[in-house]
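We both want to read discrete structure tokens more fluently, so let's practise on a single case. Would you write everything just below, so we can both look at the same thing?
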Amino acid sequence: MKILHLSDTHGQHNRLKGLPEADVIVHSGDFTFGGSEREVLDFLNWFCDLPYKYKIFIAGNHDDCLWNSEIDGLPNNCYGLRYSSVNIEGVKFHGIPMFVQDCVSGLNNTAIRNISLDTDILITHCPPFEILDFDDNIHYGSKELLTAVERIRPHYHLFGHIHSNNGVEEGGFTTFVNSAIVNEIYGDLQPWHLIEI
């Protein structure tokens, strides 16, 4: 199974040309810039029309209009994961969004601690601590997430959030992928990543 991973397009998804063939496309959040419903609809219209067999997305911290909201009317092959999983052709994807309200209330950390051990591909917006998370002399990643990944050992952990750390890092059991598309000044586009499981 080939999986195309994107993150942090911030309303610039229409600039993406020549996306490669894959079975699944995954967007790990921050598809909007200002978090408006109009931006969400624009992204979803684009995303749902892409020629991929399966499509998965989660919300990032910029996509806060989706907090406490349900998205109705998605095609059968498109999944918005919110502390939930989907099994696609024997591969289990689990998605953890990043809403500021959930981070403050502790819901985000509770959900991270409850990720199922049979998760094959973990999708979060935030990176784990000290893995593709460094910017402005600070590690912005989550220690709770790092602990969870070490416990679960998914094949892949897909995320974004830290625009200056687009890249791939091999771990002992898990490959970590940061596919933040727009750079740290929201100008140039950075690479997407194609993985295979």
Q: What stands out?
A: Helices lie at 37-49, 100-105, 107-113, 143-152.
